[in-house]
Amino acid sequence: MxxxxxxxxxxxxxxxxxxxxxxxxxxxxGGLSAARALGEAPVEITLxxxxxxxxxxxLLYQVATAALSPADIAWPIRQLVRxxxxxxxxxGEVIKVDPARKVVNTREMEFSYDFLVLATGAAHSYFGKDxxxxxxxxxxxxxxxxxxxxxxxxxxxxxxxxxxxxVRSRLxxxxxxxxxxxxxEMAGAIAELARKALAADFRNIDxxxxxxxxxxxxxxxxxxxxxxxxxxxxxxxxxxxxxxxLGHPVTDCHANGVAVSGRHIEAGTIIWAAGVAASPAATWxxxxxxxxxxxxxxxxxxxxxxxxxxxxxxxAVVLDNEGKPLPGVAPVAKQEGAYVANVIEARIVGKKxxxxxxxxxxxxxxxxxxxxxxxxxxxxxxxxxxxxxxWGLVHIYFLISLRSRLIVATQWLWSYITFERGAxxxxxxxxxSEAKGGDSSSVT
Length: 444
Hints:
disordered C terminus
């Protein structure tokens, strides 16, 4: 490897070749885009992530609803950059940044940098009610997805054995909090899972009697889309049997359900899709942030007062030409990562990058169950089955490996024809069994 890395006595990694050091924290869409764009640049890249894989988050809900397996949408980071001789991958969790010393600290060691790219993403936000988290998991990681899948599938298994009709009804009630794309996609997928894939698999219950509630505090779902698209999504979800509760925020959340505007709703499974909070990047740097903790970056995506520190993706607030914050979606993060790489390369060769970041909007897509989706690209707006096919092709195209593209395409085609879900595995700890001191065996 050019500029091999070594570890000295004070736990600092140093490069044997005096090239500019670029440290990238986070191997999501933004961080990986920056690292790949710098693959041939005369720099030494240290790519740090607390996971050893890159995750295609847009399809995470399909893991949660048993349509895909985790390996279909995740790839080892080392594999993705193995041909970049200037890149070193570190498995670690960053806990501190010292801009004065120009170092990044993980729990084990520290890394110096000439340029720092923070692409640390976002976590769930419960709006100050973090005690709700154990009852209403969000969907940001593979662990979240497999836990939600476990809760969904185990609910049907317990309902099959339950004799009390009230308890059975609660077990077969699913609440999704948040009417954005994640909430809409989850609601449609759970409804179809119950009414199609599981319909003939049980003897004591009828999965088609499952209740799926989508709760949104605002007046409509998909607020980032046009009112016409939002209305279409409401119609499709209603046809799927989803009960929409709009204009009423969740005021409480516990093991047996939620409270909405003072009214208690019994539910066996609750899924959180209502809000996100940025990583502690703003705190690390001591710079201004918005109410969600995102760094208020400059035109070149640099942190205020730190021209050598770039903040991108869900960690940053970037305004569009109309002064509105860009959405936290993959295309935004990827374009920001590529832009930052260009700025760094320009600075290395002595050129001054004067062009501010400008996001090229290639449209927004959301799927609403089987055969229905929404696409908005400027004045072009599509909905229905054609939009669903385009949505599928776009997502397959953006999967990183050919293997994943073939597997996902095959899985989707098989599911489309047969309505079957091939990843219906119940894994992980069963909280009820754990509380009783019982086994936590897996069911496949």
